[in-house]
Amino acid sequence: MSELHPVVIGAGPAGLACAKALLEAGLRPVVLEENPRPGGQGTRRLSPLMTPEAERLFGHAQAGATARREAEEDRVLAACDWRPGSLVWGIFDNRLAILRDGRHDSLPYDRLLIATGATDRIMAFPGWTLPGVFSLGAAQVALKQHAAFIGSRVVLAGASPLLYLAAAQYLRMGVRHLTIVDAASRAQKRRAAAGMAMTGLSTLIEGLRLLRELRRPDVRRIDGADLVRAIGGERLEAVEIRHASGRTETLACDALAFGHGLRPETQLAELAGARFSFHPQLRNWFPIIDADGRAGQRLWLAGDGAMTGGREAAAYSGRLAALSMLADRAGAASPVTREARALRRRARRLRRFQVHSAGAFPWPHEQAAAMPDDTIICRCERVTAGEIRKAVSSTAGPVEINRVKAITRCGMGRCQARFCGPTLQELTAAASGRPVESVGRLRAQAPLRPIPVGSADEEARA
Amino acid sequence: MNPPLFRSAVARQPDAIIYLDGIEMPARSGESLITALLAAGLMTGRSEFDGSPRCGFCLMGACQDCTLWAISGERLRACMTEVVDGMELCRLPPEPGSQNE
Predict the structure, then answer these.
(1) For a 10 Å CB count at each end of chain B, is N or C smaller?
(2) Interface-testing mutation among B29, B42, B44, B55, with chain A (most A C-beta atoms within 10 A)
(3) Is there a single domain that holds both residue A129 and residue A247?
(4) Helix (H) or strand (E) holding A232
(5) Co-location of A299 and A208 in the same domain
(6) Range of the domain at B63
(7) Are A295 and A281 in contact (CB under 8 A)?
(8) Does one domain contain both A278 and A380?
(9) Which of B2, B7, B43 to substitute to test the interface with A, most A CBs within 10 Å?
């Protein structure tokens, strides 16, 4: 049987680095990407409307570096079997089920790299479904892809370095009236700083530079305050926050973006057979991979979808996965070159940085216990915290999150638990009085996105 | 008209017309549908469960909060779909055959 081309899912930094290394070895990978353009999320490309503003948005030096990187990515993709706009919605017997331009396609693979990245990790709070409330990632995507700000008086809240990056980009593009509500106190940040300096000094310095840029009279920064509720009728009018002192304050605004770090997009990896383990410091489930990103006989994972690490770690891990694929192809267990060792070391270090920075940007798991019963947790199926607690307390036997999902429908809607899953996990643990790792992990099921019935039908007959 | 939810970051000269539930609105070809809608102060839809207004949440194709439909019945995400002049859209799934009426 002839060998199939390697397949890469996701054209962000990890997928592109992998594709490039495979090309260098004389292979022609198939690269699948859901978006019409390559780039990923953190490194998302500007829409044509925004391109003239690149220098203003990024600064002169970074705009130049970005343009060179994108030109290089285009060269790589031109040599690949590049298929943008491909939605991979299922994996069956080493075959990908794809929807592209409204048409069904089925692609078999021998070796597959999944680099699906990460999305915002969200802790729900009262009022978060109001129009005008967005995820923190959305605030940035609005600017880069939609050439728009999410509003005129903007509050950025939660626990994430993205708070400061998004604020700086809004400021550079001319937004005034910015408020940053950082859930972590300055003391928490100082405690985390030593570990961050040891594992990622340049990233830390970059962060401090942003903080300095944002020290201005028209940017208000509040530390150690939580979101209490979003207020408004048909749309957001204000946000109530609680300061560390316990005092509450209402901030008038027309837009809020919030988030609490990143959660890996692992649903495709799961369908491809990856297994998972719980990471206690990041308090989340991650796929089990070896030092090169291998997760199964035909499966490799790289980038933030494998383990949170950021852009550079994604590129290192993507290249490393390609070297591992090539070693596997040659019948070796794993690559032994000096380059492979250096890539492993660099990716590991950057991923350790993320673990340290989780101290500076903590996941507010303790909020789940105190969340009012009428808080909507699942925005797709409209399931409240009270309904989830009731399901937990009425369940006979050990509490298991997939059972709670089945009873309440929380996580069964359009987004497939991408945004309610982390809150559901913590609520289930808090309501049952058990550690979060012992209530199980939400399972993924095909189709991962809403698809026309005809596509599923064609796949079933394939 | 309602005040906009989105504020444009660049000069935005509409050069296209799209129709939302039969109502004509200006848009810029190549921009995302969600930009056109939110800049006009319009919602993308309402929750099927409680009728509360919705305008998208993640803006990157993951949450499906900004789902709407082409008049042909095709399901679209407003954040992932680019404006094409003359597009006809519905905020509820169109009844089969309704475009022939």
Answers:
(1) C
(2) B55
(3) yes
(4) strand A226-232
(5) no
(6) 16-94
(7) no
(8) no
(9) B7
Contacts of A166 (CB under 8 A, 6+ apart): A136, A139, A140, A143, A156, A257
| Amino acid at position B37, single letter | L
Q: Decide if B5 is inside a domain.
A: no
Q: What CATH number corresponds to the domain at position B50? A: 3.10.20.440
A153 Cα to chain B: minimum distance (Å) = 10
* pLDDT at position B49: 85
Please report, for the domain that includes residue A391, its CATH number.
1.10.10
For position B96, what pLDDT does the model report?
66
Q: How many domains does chain A have?
A: 3
DSSP tag of A298: S
Which residues of chain A fall short of a pLDDT of 70? 1, 462
- The pLDDT score that the predictor gives to residue B3 is 80
Find, among A219, A211, A167, A214, the residue nearest to A189 by Cα.
A211
* Rounded Cα distance, A66 and A456, in Å: 39
The CB density around residue B48, as the number of other CB atoms within 10 Å, is 14
Neighbour-count burial for A20-51, b at 16+ CB within 10 Å, e otherwise:
bbbbeeebebbbbbbbebbbbbbbbbbbebbe
Choose among B71, B67, B65, B99: nearest CA to B81: B67
Report the number of distinct structural domains present in chain B.
Answer: 1
A310 contacts A269 by C-beta, under 8 angstroms? no
Q: Identify the CA nearest to A162 among candidates A189, A136, A193.
A: A136
The residue among A43, A46, A49 with the most chain B CBs within 10 A of its CB, best to mutate, is A49
Residue contact A452–B31, C-beta within 8 A: no
Residues A250 and A288 in one domain: no
**Taking each helix axis from N to C terminus, what angle separates A401-408 and A385-394, rounded to the nearest 10 degrees?**
120
Query: Which residues in chain B land under pLDDT 70?
Result: 1, 96-101
Q: Give the pLDDT confidence score for residue B100 in this predicted structure.
A: 40
Q: If DSSP codes are grouped into helix, strand and coil, which group holds residue A245?
A: coil
Query: With an 8 Å Cβ cutoff, are A146 and B35 in contact?
Result: yes
Domain membership of residue B52 (yes or no) is: yes
Are the beta carbons of A139 and A42 closer than 8 angstroms?
no
Domain coverage including residue A184: 122-260
- The rounded distance, in Å, linking the Cα atoms of A388 and A313 is 37
Instruction: Please tell me the distance in Å from B42's CA to the nearest CA on chain A.
Output: 10
A147 with B47: Cβ contact below 8 A: no
Q: Where does a domain end: A303, A332, A357?
A: A357
Residue A135 shares a structural domain with residue A108: no
Using a CB-CB cut-off of 8 Å, the residues of chain B touching A145 are 32, 59-60
Q: How does pLDDT run across A340-374, given as a tens digit for each residue? A: 999 999 999 999 999 999 999 999 999 999 999 99
| Domain termination residue (choose one: A357, A380, A405) | A357
Pairing of strands B88-90, B16-20: parallel
List Cα–Cα distances, A316 to A62, A64, A309, A335, in angstroms. 20, 21, 10, 14
